[in-house]
Amino acid sequence: MSAYLLTHLRHVDLAVPDYDKQLDFYAGVWGLTKVVEDSGIAFLAAEGSPEQYVVRLRKAEEKRLDLVSYGAGSAEDVDTLAEQLLAGGIQLISRPGKVDTPGGGYGFRFFDIDGRTIEVSADVDVRQHRRIEEKESIPVKLSHVVLNSPDLDATREWYERHLGFRHSDTLSSPYVGDVMHFMRISNQHHSMAIAKGPHTSLHHVSFEMRGLDEYMRGSGRVMRAGVQKIWGPGRHLAGDNTFTYFLDPHGNTVEYTTELECLDEDTWHPHVYDFSQPEVTDQWGTANPMNELVAKESFNDVDRGVFVAPPV
Q1: Once rounded to an integer, what is the mean pLDDT over residues 275-303?
Q2: Are residues 257 and 287 in the same domain?
Q3: Distance separating alpha carbons of residues 182 and 171, to the nearest angstrom
Q4: H/E element holding 83?
Q5: Is the residue at 44 inside a domain?
């Protein structure tokens, strides 16, 4: 790509069999705000974010990742990206046009190399949002999404070539090789990461908290509510962000984080970190050790939505 057309991560959309339980989780203990609900679809916003919503839940018989949505700077950029994808032989699900979800806008959808549905949009109305106050332990915004791929390097190369993602860092090990590439579309260390997994699936969705105190208060609230904690609290080396990982009611991993590193893109050079070293996975040494359970839960279930566009 000759230009960087994507600006930020907008929302992650999930299909869930037990819709009511998931809605209670995200709009309850997790701290999002239900803004629209209609016929088994709910749109949930983060109070500190100008995005109309950061999570969409859809009632379905099978669990799947419906789509991942990114913003573009303008309608012209949306058209340019669609033309570039078509020229590159990428299958479009829809051509650029009106977006019929809260906030409207102009966008289109397509499949990535692993068969996930990706949406790109511009001119979406800004949601009335507010400053999150001190000690208020609810998400400010959607931070990043991590996706499992059976072919780590092929997926990284596809996102670099077709969507303009830049490589920030890699986690590797002398025993198993590369396991994660951190990718960015701004100076934020990563808006997406690609994890090596046995199948295509969602690895985790991360939500940004106001600061360290709010991150710890939120982590504690979710723990006290009896939600299964997988890993944390701790602080990663790559991205320098905090982490506490939980399972939502259908086994999707969700994370509270804060203080994700912002890079000087003119001077940044990617690192390869040896994740077998404990200080790489957790600088603080406060989290439970990375083990097979943490990895297994992060693999998630096989995504049944590969190369199948969501109905809405």
Answers
A1: 91
A2: yes
A3: 8
A4: helix 75-87
A5: yes
